[in-house]
């Protein structure tokens, strides 16, 4: 029997994190834990390949949740046309998390819809008898060496990690933490994967229990 799913895991920590709640408007507030798509992006920053699908399964919180006020001079593309033309920035206020540490878990499966894959990925897929297993080996090797495809971030680009890599023996999961209910959490913006159009998907009624947030599994992610 051919195995289709392969587990991967890593740890990441940093001084500041921002998992933006889209309902918090122009003064964004962070979710208490990383979103599904944020975890997926962190894994992909270590080893990226459109020939496989990374499916986050859960995150373990390894540091107390601490909110903190944050202000920055924003000069990005979301400014008004007039501000961009005149080179004006504006102050952006946010509520971020500080001193975070997470253990992330995911499964790797072959990508179902290969019609949108670039030619290089199609050729890689044809030469690989088990894409998920190949990706798992590449990922673990790169994680051990400290290599990455792009620098992992804790939400916003300026929030780089102080550590990412294999699990550390000194890290402890907050197993005695009180439950935290998340009524709604943005799951994905590009719901159908690589090259797909924007399509917002939310997970509802999530609970961080004993320091663990499990992402609901959806059958459309898995190859049949």
Automatic annotation (TrEMBL):
Q: Name one Pfam family in it.
A: Cas_Cas5d
Q: Specify the domain of life of the species encoding this protein.
A: Bacteria
Which keywords are on file for this protein?
Answer: Antiviral defense
Q: What is this protein called?
A: CRISPR-associated protein Cas5
> What biological-process terms (Gene Ontology) are attached?
defense response to virus; maintenance of CRISPR repeat elements
Q: What is the lineage of its organism?
A: Bacteria, Bacillati, Bacillota, Clostridia, Eubacteriales
Gene3D superfamilies tied to this protein: 3.30.70.2660
Q: Which organism is it from?
A: Desulfitobacterium hafniense (strain DSM 10664 / DCB-2)
